């Protein structure tokens, strides 16, 4: 079986490594006035990257400060992102290095098979929660990534909805990387769009038959954090047969 290593970069950012390829998903590694986590050493995550996968355009998922550094350090890397976001990255990304996707797209990336699935979110809460389609395609997506015998689902930012469950039907991820910061009226009044919460994450991971749940999107910004140990407590209370792995920043998880 192919060995797979995950490295959590904080928030929703992950480096996925095998012997053949290195993928980044939603790395946010630039300075920000509300950032609670130190910026990592960029050399660790910018060299020998085969593809950067972006789930949506929020700054903590599409880090435009990091993008030129990645393109220079990994001159063969490709940028994968929802179709309506192409103009946000071109420039600095050359058009032949940009791959646009929509839910239902499947593509091959250096031995990985990536299937694009729906996500239900909002640029700002006042827009209402949806896939973000303004007539040019969904702006919010997730990715189901297969390599060897392991399948990993990165949800991006999303609520738990029937549309999301339908999009995941039959994909059977072994590992779910799911946001847990939830949503509430106070944060939405400040323009912060919410996500599924700890119970939603446990229910979704159980529904899709995952073996491992890694809670994400709980650590980065002052005023928008959550307690990942709540996921462990809920999983135990519900009797879910899931191994909840609370990640540590920049520490590998070997699968």
Structure overview:
By secondary structure, the protein is an alpha/beta fold. Helix content is 19%, strand content 25%. It has a single domain (5-248), classed as Metallo-beta-lactamase, Chain A (4-Layer Sandwich), CATH 3.60.15. A seven-stranded mixed beta sheet has the order 6-5-4-3-2-1-14, with no helix packed on it. It has a seven-stranded mixed beta sheet with strand order 7-8-9-10-11-12-13. The longest helix is centred in the last third of the chain and has 10 residues, at 198-207. It starts with a strand and ends with a strand.
In short:
The protein has 255 residues and is of the alpha/beta class. The protein has seven helices and 14 strands.
CATH architecture: 4-Layer Sandwich
CATH topology: Metallo-beta-lactamase, Chain A
Radius of gyration, whole Å: 17 Å
Structural class by sheet pairing and helices: alpha/beta
Lay out the secondary structure:
Elements lengths: L4 E6 L2 E5 L4 E4 L16 H5 L4 E3 L13 H7 L4 E5 L3 H4 L8 E4 L4 E4 L2 E7 L22 E7 L2 E5 L7 H7 L6 E5 L5 H5 L8 H10 L4 E5 L12 H10 L4 E2 L7 E3 L1
Parallel strand pairs: 3-4, 4-5, 5-6, 10-11, 11-12, 12-13
Antiparallel strand pairs: 1-2, 1-14, 2-3, 7-8, 8-9, 9-10
Helix pairs in contact: 6-7
